Amino acid sequence: MLSMTDIHTYYGSIHALKGVTLTVNQGEIVTLIGANGAGKTTSLMSVSGVTQPKQGKIVFLGEDITKMTTEKIVAKGITQVPEGRMIFPRLTVRENLLMGAYLRNDKDGVKADEEKVYELFPKMRERMKQHGGTLSGGEQQMLAIGRALMARPKLLLLDEPSLGLAPIVVENIFEIIQRINREGTTILLVEQNAQMALHIAHRGYVLETGAVTLEGPAKDLLENPKVRSAYLGLD
Amino acid sequence: MFEQQLFNGLTLGLIYALIAVGYTMVYGVIELINFAHGEVYMFGAFLCVTIINSLGVPLFPAMVLAMGLCALMGVSIDHIAYKPLRKAPRLAALITAIGVSIFLQNIAMIIWGSRPVPFTRSAVPAAFSEQAFALGSVSVSGLQLFIYLFTTAMMIGLTLIINKTKVGTAMRALAQNATAAALMGINVNRVIAFTFALGSSLGAAAGILVAMYYNTMSATMGYNAGVKAFAAAVLGGIGSVPGAMLGGVVLGVAETLGAGYVSSQYRDGLGYAVMIAVILLRPSGLLGKSVGQKA
Ligand SMILES: Nc1ncnc2c1ncn2[C@@H]1O[C@H](COP(=O)(O)OP(=O)(O)O)[C@@H](O)[C@H]1O
Ligand SMILES: [Mg+2]
Asked: Crossing angle, helix B142-164 and helix B188-214, to 10 degrees?
């Protein structure tokens, strides 16, 4: 469904991605794990067209999207839940959700999807008229995910959804991610919480200083000695 | 006397408010103080009079046409001068804005000369110069009444656009988090262009009203009005649209009362004194978000 081939992305003279190659197949949850600064966020931003890669190719559903604008990429069906949630603090919960559906013109479909988001996150219905900034961290993460779902994505990119949340809230969010996946959305999940991510993912990639160093089925990675010592804090 | 000054101040204040919303909206979306905004205001007045004089178009259609042309002008300024600098250091865009302002002032001087030009009296309805109503000792002219109604209608329209439409919500979203806005598929440059169009057409309307009110316009009129409206935007809390409206009115009233009671020589200084006092007491402005929180 998605393939990144030899992606190089720079911030000025900083060479952040040094040839990232990965694929995501339809229906999968694929996780990209790695330490802080490894290039996980940059990888997702490269897919979304926010940071344009200097070299390499990104193909989505058979189409080259490497040089497309973010607007086009979203329209093609890739939506991102960015790191740190980035909800709009002074828009209401409902306005936040509607911004997720910005490119859609099918009013009835948008209405139906808004209803689906409220079913998935009943808290959002209660808080519909509140400003996004008044929500708790976990609620903001729910809002960010709900907002992304409003675009009706084929591929959902999630950047560290567990960041800064209490373990119980993280469990809840991860259950919802699995549910979204079961209902037909393919997921590329970036995490520092490798334990949780590898438990729900089908496959995983390990990113180190801008390049993939390990990949394989999530089960195998969970048993890989290198992963266990460096990312799971075991053995 | 006091009441009369209050009504005169309100006239001026509403006009400042109409210019100030343009500064504050642009600042909200791209964090740029658009120094060329005062020149768009000036072009509004000149274009309106030129359309009336050379095409024989009546006042109100000419006004709408001039506002439309200025909207286009604002969009072009952004496209040509600011858009290439979106990712450049803030100072580069700021200096460019000053450059655009000087450039436009000189263009106006080439086209319309450097001496003040009167507004076309014959195009102005007679009712504008007559008294519309009197309240005790206060006399309000037809033009003043028109300014009250017109600016209020514009502010209400603007508020509705910003708060109730999709593009208005996108403007607010962009001001709060540009990366997230882009990730929603919002075409950021198009929303910025829309912001310039809105602000510029309101600025142009203000220029036309002022030129009618004082029966004069000049190529340099944008400087003073621009600085005043900018002060009004800061006074209200830069980035806040209701703040700019309130700031404009407060500044206009303070200035007129000051000129009436202290000395008309200190008129500008008194306006700024009010602004400085407010900023000292409340650095984020009257309706601004507390300092430290991003716009
Ligand atoms: N806006 C930026 N400007 C300059 N360097 C950046 C920027 N964002 C990230 N980097 C650098 O790029 C590298 C990868 O960062 P990032 O993709 O954020 O990693 P991760 O998400 O894995 O923590 C890091 O070395 C980081 O310092
Ligand atoms: Mg990151």
From this structure: 170
